[in-house]
Design a protein that fits this description.
Layout (H helix, E strand, L loop, with lengths): L1 H22 L4 H19 L5 H21 L6 H27 L8 H28 L3 H22 L4 H22 L6 H23 L5 H21 L4
Helix pairs in contact: 1-2, 1-4, 2-3, 3-4, 3-5, 3-6, 4-5, 5-6, 5-8, 6-7, 7-8, 8-9
Length: 251
């Protein structure tokens, strides 16, 4: 009974932490620490995953997703937009935790690959928000680009590994693929930085590249890569990039 209430109760607490951030931005580190602690406690309460490495891998998605959403709010203007981001983050959070609960305790209501799919979407959003934060730190606070390139490498490597692992790719192959994607992501991050576009556009360009490379690599690791799959993801990536570039404001 208690486990069934975890998704709802933890999401309410997440909402309080997000709203506290808006009211007391100077205490962001403390609220972020509380956010991470809440994620860990929620997963401990709702899951029975063994060994511990499995819990840690699952936690990657949640921790990076909420970290990205949390700090992304700082670089967005307008209370309405900030509240929309918070609401979306909370909706995704309750869906994510509910799927974990269904997977272990209500298998008759669990849909095949539901947890894998929701974590993949969370990881994609995490790349966009965290990379946006990195570009924002360079633009507004003059943080060194080389330092944030390392951070981007770590983010993309972890998220790629987690997505590949969730797709049943062997641990060693998933780790290597994560490192490769992390290096590519860091290179793209540094190259896109020099474009005369906003930090949001730059983040979208890298996110699209991540999406295409990740999915093509995932199909390759599963020995399912075909010409039609390559063409589909290249078309999606090109279409989104074209729309982003055309609609962007260039300085």
């Amino acid at each position: 009974m208690l486990r069934r209430t975890v998704p709802t109760l933890s999401t309410l607490l997440f909402g309080l932490l997000y709203e506290a951030l808006l009211r007391y931005p100077s205490s962001v580190i403390y609220f972020w620490g509380g956010l991470i602690l809440l994620i860990i406690l929620s997963l401990l309460a709702i899951s029975k995953m063994k060994p511990w490495s499995t819990r840690i891998i699952i936690a990657i998605s949640a921790i990076l997703f909420h970290t990205g959403a949390y700090y992304f709010i700082f670089f967005i203007s307008g209370q309405a937009i900030k509240q929309t981001i918070i609401i979306l983050a909370l909706i995704i959070n309750i869906i994510f935790l509910t799927h974990i609960y269904y997977y272990y305790y209500r298998t008759e209501r669990y849909q095949v690959n539901a947890l894998q799919n929701i974590s993949s979407y969370m990881n994609l959003l995490s790349v966009f928000t965290l990379v946006s934060v990195c570009y924002g730190l360079i633009l507004y606070l003059a943080w060194p680009g080389w330092l944030l390139s390392i951070f981007v490498f770590i983010i993309i490597a972890l998220l790629t590994f987690q997505t590949s692992w969730a797709s049943k790719v062997l641990f060693r192959r998933a780790s290597r693929f994560g490192i490769i994607c992390g290096l590519i992501g860091a290179e793209i991050f540094w190259a896109v930085y020099f474009l005369p576009s906003s930090f949001l556009v730059n983040a979208m360009i890298l996110t699209v590249a991540y999406y295409v490379i990740l999915n093509l690599g995932r199909y390759y690791l599963q020995d399912q890569l075909k010409k039609i799959v390559i063409m589909r993801y290249l078309f999606i990536g090109f279409a989104v990039l074209l729309l982003t570039v055309v609609s962007a404001r260039w300085t």
